[in-house]
TrEMBL record:
The protein, known as: Transcription factor domain-containing protein
Length: 542
């Protein structure tokens, strides 16, 4: 009680304490302290903190910008399967490899992608890699990450004063990034009206495709991105979220998973805060489209957090309905004035808009296909049927998308010779790898949740791995294709004991082909997968 009275008491001088009893006036000093136009802080401090409440005099306190806050919550059992997995219980690399391949309890797909990045940075895994570096071929072990720039007379900073440089960055974004992962419409894209934060995000994304880079120019663009993020991080609106999502995608493409993950978590919270998941007809058609498109792209990047192995998200997930209005071609068709500034001809604008609409539609469908229910009392037959249903849906989508792209190329075949853009329209290999990765994850889910698999189920899994193998030596592999190839190789090994002797011999020869590919593409990012693959190959040959 003493503390409560202390909070509300006010101190006056000893003379005024007697004056209170006699109903006399206070002294001037006490009168100023008791002035109703003054506000006192009700706690002790070195100096009296007085704020004027007069109309013409306002003193505002300054606050530090808060950091990203993460709420603690109970996560689902399926999530603990990976995050709480005790890697330090294994005594050697052979011990760990035999568990990963033979136990049928650990999802091998967690060794690639974002989860794989987290696993490889665990202290016990780092120690295991360091203790087995002698097993890595010296000729191919490109452990150091080096950036080689062409020798130039200048450092490239003079480009910053050239308006054409910034226009080229916008063009690179529109051509290289937007058709495959659009986050806003191009129909109302006006270079004079684009919000500054979104424009900087477009610049930074376009620069990732710039070929004439230099260390000085890289440093400038990196600082530009950092300032842009800090400027809009706590200013929630649609354009700022679009800019932050562009920076988030860049972080992931640069293997800065920690920064990308933190930014994606912040974007997800803020998007729910401003209610972009709520469908309302009170906005204009342009605003409604941008809200729905942005929300679906955020969910697409969150797919590792809300699909397959995180079956029940720890946050509320509103799976959006497929709205036909989202997939009209004209939403991504640039105006004539903007396309003229960017140097795009009419056929190129038409192709880019149709390609963007196709990717929006099929990315949304793939997201819905990978949302699995919680496995409680389903039988093996029911789980297999569930996996077959999702696989058939995805495979049909892939066939439809491939046919649509071929038709698109045929319509504009007459202009191919005059347009470099139309000659390099779609990377069919990357598209196929994208779907093959999804196929493997679906069938892996079936293997982990059933006690016994049918022969048809195993044969289809091997067929998918064979398709990945065929693509691994036809041409140069991208970083994503290398990771999927590792997943295919480890999947071969995990099914080895369930195969006939003839099938086993075929698998051994296929693993040798993959081994040569991995020797040629070895770098610091896939050391752990390389060691697991080679160790597993030795184990199955014993």
């Amino acid at each position: 009680m003493a503390k409560l009275t202390y909070l509300i008491e006010y101190k006056v001088c000893k003379k005024c304490q007697f004056k209170v009893v006699k109903f006399e006036d206070y002294c001037k000093k006490c009168l100023s302290m008791l002035d109703p136009s003054k506000k006192f802080i009700p706690y002790k401090s070195k100096k009296s903190m007085i704020f004027d409440n007069n109309e013409n005099s306002y003193n505002f306190a300054t606050f530090r910008i808060p950091r990203l806050n993460f709420n603690n919550y109970k996560v689902q059992k399926e999530y603990l399967l990976v995050t709480n997995f005790q890697f330090d219980q294994f005594q050697s690399l052979e011990h760990l490899t035999s568990y990963l391949i033979c136990s049928n309890k650990f999802p091998l797909s967690c060794l690639i992608g974002e989860l794989g990045w987290s696993i490889k940075r665990m202290p016990q895994i780092k120690r295991m890699i360091d203790s087995n570096l002698s097993l890595i071929p010296i000729a191919t072990a490109n452990i150091e990450d080096t950036s080689i720039f062409e020798v130039r007379e200048t450092n490239g900073l003079e480009l910053l004063y050239n308006p054409k440089f910034w226009t080229d960055l916008i063009r690179l974004y529109v051509v290289k990034q937007h058709p495959y992962l659009p986050i806003f419409n191009l129909k109302y894209f006006d270079l004079n009206l684009v919000p500054q934060a979104l424009l900087v995000g477009i610049y930074c994304t376009g620069y990732s495709f710039w070929t004439k880079k230099s260390p000085e120019l890289d440093h400038y663009m990196e600082q530009l991105a950092k300032r842009n993020i800090s400027r809009v991080l706590f200013k929630p609106n649609i354009s700022n979220l679009q800019a932050l999502l562009l920076h988030c995608i860049l972080f992931y493409s640069q293997c800065k998973v920690t920064e990308g993950r933190a930014l994606l978590s912040h974007i997800t919270r803020v998007s729910y805060l401003i209610g972009i998941h709520i469908q309302s007809g009170k906005f204009s058609s342009q605003v409604i489209y941008n809200r729905d498109l942005l929300y679906r792209k955020i969910l697409f990047w969150q797919r590792n957090l809300n699909t397959v192995y995180k079956l029940v998200p720890s946050y509320e997930l509103d799976v959006p309905k497929l709205i036909p209005n989202l997939y009209y071609d004209n939403w991504h068709e640039l105006s004539k004035s903007t396309s003229a500034v960017l140097g795009l001809i009419e056929n190129e604008v038409s192709v880019l808009s149709q390609l963007a609409s196709l990717n929006v539609q099929y990315l949304d469908q793939s997201l819905l296909t990978l949302v699995f229910p919680v496995i409680k009392s389903q039988s093996d037959e029911e789980i297999e049927k569930m996996c077959w249903t999702r696989y058939n849906k995805l495979s049909k989508d892939f066939i439809k998308l491939s046919e649509e792209i071929k038709l698109l190329e045929l319509r504009h075949s007459n202009c191919k010779k005059s347009s470099y853009l139309l000659q390099n329209l779609v990377d069919e290999k990357s598209l196929k790898i994208f779907y093959l990765d999804f196929y493997l994850v679906i069938f892996e889910f079936g293997r982990l949740n059933t006690s016994q698999l049918s022969t048809e189920f195993l044969d289809k899994t091997i067929e998918i791995c064979d398709s990945i193998l065929d693509m691994s030596f036809k041409s140069d592999l991208t970083e994503g294709a290398i990771e999927v190839s590792y997943l295919a190789g480890l999947t071969y090994m995990s099914m080895f004991t369930n195969l006939s002797e003839a099938k086993k011999l075929e698998i051994v020869s296929k693993l040798e082909i993959l081994s040569k590919t991995f020797n040629d593409t070895l770098d610091k990012d896939n050391l752990f997968n390389y060691l697991i693959f080679n160790c597993g190959k030795k184990l199955i040959n014993k």
